[in-house]
Amino acid sequence: MASTELQHWPAAQVLDQRVADALGRRIDEIVALWERLEPNGPGFGQEVAAKPEHARSRYYEPVARMLVAGLGGSADHRATYIDCRLNYLPKALSGHQRAQLMSRVLQAEGRAIAELLDGECPREVTEEVLARVHEPLTCPPEPGDPRLLLIGDCVFNDVRLFLSERVFAATGRGPDVDHIFFTAGPRPLEPDELRRVTGSATPTLIGLSLFSYSGVPAYGGVIAEANRLRGGELQERVQTLAAMVASSIEAIREVTDATVLVHTACSLPVTRRRASWPFLPAESRGRRRLNLALTDAVAEVVAATENTLLVDEQTLIAENGGLKAMGSPILGPDYEEAYAHPARFGAVLADHYAEALAAQALLGKAKVLLVDFDNTLWDGVMGEGEVHHFAERQRLLHELREAGVLLVALSKNDAASIRWQETGLAPEDFVLQMINWRPKPDNVSDAIVALDLAPEAFVLLDDNPVERALVEENVPGVRSLDPVDPASWRCLEQWLEMPSTTQTDEARRRTQLYRESAERRIAMGSEHNYEQMMSSLELRAELRPASEDDMPRLLELIQRTNQFNTTTRRRSAAEVKELLASPEHELFVASLRDRFGDLGVVAVVITQRMPDGEVELDSFIMSCRAMGFGLEQFTIAEVTRRLDAPRYIAPFIPTERNGPAAGLYPANGFTEMEPGMWALDAAERPERPAWLRGEDG
After folding, report:
1. Do 529 and 240 form a contact (C-beta atoms < 8 A)?
2. CA 447 to chain centre
3. pLDDT tens figures, 594-614
4. Nearest to 347 by CA among 164, 546, 476, 111
5. To 5 degrees, how large is the angle CA 98–CA 88–CA 336?
6. Taking the model in full, what pTM does it have?
């Protein structure tokens, strides 16, 4: 980096780049330092890979390079780095406990790195730079911080990653994010699960994504046959999938009326073959037709449901370069083997969520919109002659008024010069008319008194930045929007779907009509319910004792599976051989196939016969591609049938990544007898799913 170029940079950026350059020359030493710091390093003492060289090449070394690139100015690398530092954090920590632990760990780490770079950078400079980049990790949550609940598939891993960076950069605070990994499998979304996750804190916003990354097995089944489906068949499948969305929203509504962002479908991820062949479309014609129809159906559900917003993934992807571009890794090919390699679409969705959170922060508790006229509701000054009306803006304000928002006319003008007959608004649409030549802060103060509301309930919409500044500075608590910025109008549109807005009788009747339409749609879906759709896949499963011939697949599942893994215990080949030979242990493998093909061995269960006759399910590990078909229930039913015992016990060790396995035991009749240990009496053994046949018939 040329010194003349650095002279024009802000001081903090100069220091960041100086530390980045020094770190870039010491990657191997930084990795070695992190390994020495365990259990107070990035892995927090957990076994992050089956082999030490994998931990180094796929985690520590890529994370070090992310840190260097992030300090060098790349927001995407910095965001991914911060998220990686959370991956192996102990699971059951509150936000304050997490911040305290990270502060202690990172202070010690910062001193060690500063000592390592001493001679290239002053120690105090290195410690200052590292403390600044780690602020999102060490900043404890406050009561007013936004809280986001994400319900759905893997797309939310990338959304969370980039969103935290976006929000922290804008506000200096990070959102409190919870993620329920839910794929609308055999069990519907349960209100009790939502209550368990949310606790006493109401979410600011909820995201619901069932189709983004083919997370719903029923959706995957429809995709497999999409190219042969015709009009009527396609619509039946689509209505069933839309009914899943509607029932999930209904479960959410039993817990909270927070605004829900409902995703459509987008055909991600793109297959490797379609991604690498430039002349091959990113998706088949049948899948494209399916997703367009599903987008329309989900849009109808959203239109029929209060406090919901549509996240049209088809449009977002089209506006940002298409499927292949959005499915590509944002950090580039150098990180493809790293454990963290987020896709570009996650960053686009994060921007969408950041804007929605900003709208909630501004308008979530607002009641009054102070409205300027000239160059806000129309282009020009009405008192000087003809103007061009912004009809859509006026229509939106009328809808807000119908939804219970109080409109106050706040215009420096002669009241007699306002030609109401030209506008889409009427004088009676405004609760107060302050059309005069007084200073706007005076008018706003009078409106606060007249309406007997707190200043925080008022938002100003005014094109003049001077007027906005005067009001905000002289009437603390009032905030403003710039009508020149399109984001302001998107923000106001979202206000219509916030719990703070109410509806007129006419609007309630309109909602009732939409709701009746949605109920009819759900009834249609019940004719093609989940069990029937699973049955149409002709699923067959097999459970058998593992043998040494299964060793390659056993090791692959045990050493590499993170999400559906009840303990994430990593075992070497020698340890697995000992288990196979042990008379107290039994290893089972489960395979799955359907009418479209054979998935092969997709699960392994390690069991141990205890001295008192009980059987412990030491580990239950399953490939993500088998989730949601009922294989979990089938496997537990078969294991407990073959290993007769008075009681079955099973540990569950939560990690940052195995959330998808958290519901395995409670969903199959186990009860938690102590934290992390579940038990099932023999009389409560689950039955096989009705749609899943064993190889024995």
Report:
1. yes
2. 40
3. 877 788 899 999 999 999 999
4. 164
5. 130
6. 0.76
